[in-house]
TrEMBL record:
Record: residues binding Zn(2+): 182, 245, 262
PANTHER family the UniProt entry points to: 3-DEHYDROQUINATE SYNTHASE (PTHR43622), 3-DEHYDROQUINATE SYNTHASE, CHLOROPLASTIC (PTHR43622:SF7)
Similarity annotation: Belongs to the sugar phosphate cyclases superfamily. Dehydroquinate synthase family.
GO MF terms, alphabetically ordered: 3-dehydroquinate synthase activity
Protein task: Catalyzes the conversion of 3-deoxy-D-arabino-heptulosonate 7-phosphate (DAHP) to dehydroquinate (DHQ).
UniProt remark on cofactor binding: Binds 1 divalent metal cation per subunit. Can use either Co(2+) or Zn(2+).
Protein name (Swiss-Prot/TrEMBL): 3-dehydroquinate synthase
Gene3D superfamilies named in the record: 3.40.50.1970, Dehydroquinate synthase-like - alpha domain
InterPro entries in the record: Dehydroquinate_synthase, DHQ_synth_AroB, DHQ_synth_fam, DHQS/DOIS_N, DHQS_C
Cofactor(s) the protein needs: Co(2+); Zn(2+); NAD(+)
Highest taxon listed in the record's lineage: Bacteria
Gene name per UniProt: aroB
UniProt keyword Isomerase, yes or no: no
Length: 365
């Protein structure tokens, strides 16, 4: 078992990672002496593991469980409000603790409920997906707005992240792929050696074995914890974690939440950002190699034909990194090294169109 620390302005918290990490949860709960506990989970996780968590917590604390419908659509204002009503009805108070038990959706939504209920109560992340090696660490909690991903949210850090890798054993392929996209992102922005390892060892999703998972989770979390510890509120450095997300979020929202997974959407976004790096920075990143690899893994490699460049640019203008209509893209100087590039709406429109046209003509050839 490993423990990686995240240092924030107000606190330091551990991300406990390992195949038996879950047994650490009661210790962390004891440290918080909760008046009550609210476990928020989703239908998929509840079916498989709901009892495991409740048994572990045992009768020591009065515990409630709220099960949301699985899927991105649950990161909604309605569900947020419903969870507040549930907490109020059951008289949770400021000493109550929320446990987010699930993937990115559960973590983001529960974290935002914790951040806002009575102006903030403690919460613990217990992630169950590969994607959550990213989303559960760093305190970005949010719900979606039809106009954009994570538009309503906060920076609100958990008291601990208890990441038991046993949960990953039951992940369906599409969930594994989605999380793998964030692993690749961490490698592309910060670690050439992790990138080479993944590229060499994992050509198909089936290639992912326990030892691969161990390395990708640990290194991914280390990268994330390091970046967040240096820039908790995204005043500068932290924006690199958004590599692939400017276009990725636009594609995801345009498709309708839950239609295209987060990982698949940002895989397309990362390909565009890599192409853009070559186009605008005078570098020569292995774009075609990356695209071929993504195809082998099963990622979509193009923007859905039904989404117009106009629609996407109008969504990208609402990206949180956009100021005064200048769109910021995180690009690569080399694998493992990023920089940011600023474009006007017209410039990015032309570049996105050019990339899409190139991709279409390659398909015809
Ligand atoms: O933690 C961060 O910072 C990230 O940007 C990580 C992303 O992978 C994650 O999807 C994040 O929630 C996106 O944040 P947003 O600020 O673009 O909504």
């Amino acid at each position: 078992m490993e423990s990686i620390l995240v240092n924030t302005v107000d606190d330091t918290y551990p991300v406990i990672v390992g195949s038996d990490a879950l047994k650490e949860l009661p210790n962390h709960l004891r440290g918080l002496s909760p008046s009550k506990i609210l476990v928020i989970t989703d239908t998929n996780v509840d079916k498989l593991y709901g009892h495991v968590l409740v048994d572990l917590i045992g009768g020591d604390w009065k515990t409630y469980k709220y099960v949301i419908k699985s899927g991105e659509a649950a990161k909604s204002f309605e569900m947020f409000y419903e969870l507040h009503s549930y907490a109020l009805k059951n008289e949770l108070d400021r000493k109550s603790v929320i446990i987010a038990f699930g993937g990115g959706v559960v973590g983001d939504l529960s974290g935002f409920v914790a951040a806002t209920y009575m102006r903030g109560i403690p919460f613990i992340q217990v992630p169950t997906t590969l994607l959550a090696h990213d989303s559960a660490v760093g305190g970005k909690v949010a719900i979606n707005h039809p106009e954009g991903k994570n538009m309503i949210g906060a920076f609100y850090q958990p008291k601990a992240v208890v990441y038991d890798s046993n949960f990953l054993q039951s992940l369906p392929a599409n969930e594994m792929r989605s999380g793998f996209a964030e692993v690749i992102k961490h490698a592309l922005i910060r670690s050439e050696s992790l990138y080479q390892f993944l590229f060499k060892e994992i050509r198909r999703l089936d290639d992912i074995k326990t030892e691969h998972l161990q390395r990708m989770i640990l290194e991914g979390i280390q990268i994330k914890a390091d970046v967040v510890s240096k820039d908790e509120k995204e005043l500068g450095l932290r924006a690199i974690l958004n590599f692939g997300h400017t276009l990725g979020h636009a594609i995801e929202a345009e498709a309708g939440y839950g239609k295209l997974s987060h990982g698949d959407s940002i895989a397309i976004g990362m390909l565009f950002a890599t192409w853009l790096s070559n186009k605008t920075l005078d570098v020569s990143l292995p774009y075609h190699e990356l695209k071929l690899w993504f195809k082998e893994i099963g990622f979509p490699v193009e923007v859905p034909a039904s989404q117009s460049t106009d629609q996407l640019i109008s969504r990208m203008k609402k990206d949180k990194k956009t100021t005064s209509n200048q769109l910021t893209m995180i690009v690569l100087k080399e694998i493992g090294v990023t920089t940011s590039a600023i474009f006007s709406e017209d410039e990015l429109y032309s570049l996105l169109n050019e990339w899409r046209a190139e991709e279409r003509s390659e398909k015809v050839d």
